[in-house]
Amino acid sequence: MSAVDDFLAMLSAERGAARNTILAYGRDLEQAEEMLGGELEQAQPAQLAKLAQGWSALAPATVARKMSALRQFFGFLVDDGIRSDDPTHALPRPTTRRPLPKILSHDEIERLFRTAEEEAAGDSPQAIRMLVLLEMLYGSGLRATELVSLPLAAVPRDAPFLTVTGKGGQARMVPVSRRAKAALSRWLAVRPNGSPWLFPSRSRHLSRVRLFQLVKALAARAGLAPEKLSPHVLRHAFATHLLEGGADLRALQTLLGHADISTTQIYTHVDAARLVELVNQRHPLAKARASD
User: Tell me, what's the pLDDT at 187?
Assistant: First the structure.
């Protein structure tokens, strides 16, 4: 096996990386090796610096991903004693900025829930299902794929937690609110029997595409712009509103199932004035001065 193969095997075995991530990193490293014209593990800083020319037509986000693959690869080589130096300091530095997530206001969330609750009052199975989906997207911060693929066995009985299998096959516990549990109980009473999935469909389980359609249709009925709503936007709202309420960033990382805290830090775009107020009210020095 080559050093690249060993690295990819490590990503799978030790870090639980998703298959798509491993395939993307494999392509990135293979392409870099072709551009350099030699074995990648022996590349020198001057050679890596020349990659900038080959990447000049690529989007900054694509370049950033390729750089991440190379940095992790050479870090692996150093950790395993295959190399004594890390040449990635010579890599080009693209100017990229992760786009901020779309933000929903508390009022918009309230309008969504008001519409869903009013429609579910009539005991329509489809309306009750929509209410449960909304409760779990916004109330638990689930990804679309995590939600639609929930097995029936994952529904909590006594414990207020749900076991979810996220990216890379990593399992985590997410809280289920009293509201969501009540909606789940109503859904379990009317859902079709005979399927192992919590949200069954004719073929298997509710698809991500259908979930997107349901969320956008609910937005339209609530008087909101459908293009502003998606399951991922509701997950963003869950994270943003928790931070606004004073949630700890590390706790939020666990709830969202992020492998890296840097991914969670995107949600720190919350109002700067609120953060200043939080420091003034909660910091020990602020309390000490107030008592003087």
Answer: 93
